[in-house]
Structure formats: C-alpha cells, structure tokens
Amino acid sequence: MDKRAFERLVREHEKTLYNLALRMTGNEHDAADMTQETFLRAWRAIDRFRGESAVSTWLYKLCANVCMDFLRARRRRAAYETEPPNRDDAAGYAAEVPDMTYSPETELERALLREGLQNALNKLPREQRRALLLREIGGLPYADIAAALGIPEGTVKSRIARAREQMRVLLTESGNFPGG
To answer: At 67, which helix (H) or strand (E)?
Structure first.
C-alpha cells in the first residue's frame, strides 16, 4: 500500500479508533497513543491483510488488541509500584487546561458522567466490554464484531445484551442513570 492510500485510511478511521481506545483506556493521552500504535502496527502488517473481512473490522480488532495489551501491561506495572506518583511533579504530567467554552457546572456533570460510565465499563467482563465497545463506539454490525472477535454472531448478541443490562444496573446503582 502506498503512503497516500494509507493516509486516506488513517483519516477515515482515526476518529473511530480513537473513540474506541478512549473507552477502553479511559484516558485521552493513552487513547491517542493506542490509536497511533494501532496505525503503526497496521502499516507494518498491511501486506498480510488478506481482505477476509472489511479493513475497518481488521483495524477495530487490531485497536482492541493494542488496548488490551496496554491495559494488561498497566496492571502489571501497577502491581509493582510501591508508592503513588507525585502529582506535583510537572515532568511526569502534562498540564490540564480547562475548556472555557462551557460552564464549570456543565463540565463537572460531564466529567462525573464520563467517570461513571468508565467505572461501569471497567466492571464488565472483558469479553462483554469488547463486544459492547465495538458495537457502540466502533459502530460495527454484529457480523463484523463476530469476525473481529472470532466468535459466532449469536454469542456477540448475547454478550452485548448482557453488557447493556449490566451497565444499566451499575449506572442505576451509582446514581448515574434514572429509573431502575
């Protein structure tokens, strides 16, 4: 694949892959890194892509795998850390600049909602979370999710249904979702 064709591929899929990575990692910086890593791996492996699925399916599966590798490595690192990072250390963290286009109250509400969603997603079993994210964030049809995860389409549907129900329960219990 030539560079221009790959650039078109990146432009076409970068936003969706970033959103998938953001939901899986829960962090904008990590999501940007995982998206970049996904495209790097795709560039290296593009010659091995056989066209047995849509390019988007291949990229979503690649992105999900990159994120899962990252999350596993992060959990291993966390197990070895003996003290929490120093938040005052400017070298270790980028400065957070607030978005002044919205009121502080609105931003707080959105942040709390995002945190509640991320916490609920993190409590889902990995298989359910991956299927749900590929459907809701990736926008993939069930057949493409089945191909990406290597499971039957019926299994995809049941995992997504269970994930949605579990999300409803978790969000209701945490006060982030009305009703019950």
So the answer is: helix 55-80
Name the amino acid, one letter, at 47.
D
Residues 68-99: b if buried by 16+ CB within 10 A, e if exposed: eebbeeeeeeeeeeeeeeeeeeeeeeeeeeee
- Give the domain range for residue 47: 1-83
pLDDT value at residue 2? 79
**CATH code at position 74:** 1.10.1740.10
Look up the CATH number of the domain holding residue 112: 1.10.10.10
Angle between helices 153-173 and 126-136 (to 10 degrees): 100
pLDDT tens digits, one per residue of 132-159: 988 988 788 899 899 888 999 999 999 9
Q: Are 68 and 121 contained in the same domain?
A: no
Length of the chain: 180
Q: How far is CA 180 from the centre of its chain?
A: 27
Q: Are 33 and 19 in contact (CB under 8 A)?
A: no
Which residues lie below 8 Å from residue 178, measured CB to CB, with a gap of 6+? 172
Q: Is residue 50 part of a domain?
A: yes
